[in-house]
């Protein structure tokens, strides 16, 4: 996770399930993310990913390991300086809703996004209750177990959606982007409401739509040469391990906004993270965790 590197914590967050993890890794943050996951259980089944409940159980197991290693008091202080990042919902919107019939035949986008936000709210409340009940330590005005929730980016402009839904000119799929904005608006409002009920831990909505859209639409301004196609793959449909199967890669990924058909390049991510840091308080944290 580039955020950890930008904050100077560590070069990358190791996965929690890595059997070689050491106590030093636990003390500076780990990653509970599961590629392809989402709030919607249908998404989890489609991608064979770990569910939000699975990831929360891993987090609880992590806390027990930390308590066994350094004790309850130090664990409590550790959590007080930690940032938890949740990035979820993109696969629900872009894959489950727009690329399969399982939800679209039963829900319009208003109802589906409302359902996702309810699922997100339930997950955040579970997370908040767990961290909040574990400790009551507070340093200054810093809330324990602060959680940053990243909104959905303009997923209708990723290479895959352009190829599938963008026509001959491979334009952005505006219906997908509109769904993302509807979801983000509801998510932001939900987080504000939750903060009134659960002031500790602190929940913060992190905007990503505008920043990535700016990179895509004005990529030349940021030193990129390509903003609508991926560095890897042949058809702009490949992602993750399927990129390796295509055996086609660009010569210089730093010139591309997108690495594969869905994910930005490391350079693009670095710019996005830097913008988020400028607009928020997260630079004060010493430990980072990712749930996805």
TrEMBL record:
One GO cellular component term of this record is: extracellular region
Q: Which Pfam families match?
A: Lipase_GDSL
- Cite the CDD domains for this sequence: SGNH_plant_lipase_like
Concerning InterPro entries, the annotation shows: GDSL (IPR001087), GDSL_lipolytic_enzyme (IPR050592), SGNH_hydro_sf (IPR036514), SGNH_plant_lipase-like (IPR035669)
Q: Name one GO molecular function term.
A: hydrolase activity, acting on ester bonds
Q: According to the lineage, what is the superkingdom?
A: Eukaryota
- Indicate the family of this protein: Belongs to the 'GDSL' lipolytic enzyme family.
Q: What is this protein called?
A: Uncharacterized protein
